[in-house]
From TrEMBL:
Note on how the cofactor is bound: Binds 1 zinc ion per subunit. Binds 1 Mg(2+) ion per subunit.
Domain of life: Bacteria
Gene Ontology cellular component list: cytoplasm
Residues binding Mg(2+), per UniProt: 91, 93, 95
Keyword set, alphabetical order: Amino-acid biosynthesis, Cytoplasm, Histidine biosynthesis, Hydrolase, Magnesium, Metal-binding, Zinc
Domain Phosphoribosyl-AMP cyclohydrolase per the UniProt entry, residue ranges: 44-117
Name the record gives this protein: Phosphoribosyl-AMP cyclohydrolase
Gene: hisI
NCBIfam families: PRK00051.1
Enzyme Commission number(s) from the entry: 3.5.4.19
Lineage summary: Bacteria, Pseudomonadati, Pseudomonadota, Alphaproteobacteria, Rhodospirillales
């Protein structure tokens, strides 16, 4: 048995201060914006609950709460397009998270690098990013 207080002993942080700083909504969720390390590109927005935040912090693999599946969603578990946590930030009000990630492949289920691939151009929404990976390759079926 090892003494956890011995020099060099591994002690898992509790992350109590981090959780206390987050203002989860009435459903126990907080929006999390994923930003690409280096380029600063905004890749996606998803929701996290307390469990997803803790798993992300403990493992370094980004985990979200899927409202449609009503369960934890480990980014890339179906598609292989994993996100590794590089930095974790909480905004001034504690009601939005910024996760800076190293993204494997594409972030969007449509096969694009970012979920923000539509932009206002001449009064209309225009697609500004091409599909990089066919969604049927990622998921075995087509997504809109």
């Amino acid at each position: 048995m090892t003494d956890a207080t011995a020099p060099g002993a591994s002690i898992e942080p509790s992350f109590d201060d981090v959780i206390a700083a987050i203002a989860f909504n009435a459903d126990g969720l907080v929006p999390a914006i994923a930003q690409a390390e280096g380029s600063g590109e905004i890749l996606m927005m998803a929701w996290m609950n307390r469990e997803a935040v803790l798993e992300t912090l403990r493992t370094g693999r980004v985990c979200y709460w899927s409202r449609s599946r009503k369960g934890l969603w480990r980014k890339g578990e179906t598609s292989g397009q994993m996100q590794r946590l590089k930095d974790f930030r909480v905004d001034c009000d504690g009601d939005t998270l910024l996760v800076i990630v190293e993204q494997d492949g594409v972030a969007c289920h449509t096969g694009r690098r970012s979920c923000f691939y539509r932009a206002l151009r001449d009064g209309k929404l225009a697609i500004i990013q091409d599909v990089e990976t066919d969604p049927s390759v990622l998921y075995g079926h087509t997504h809109k």
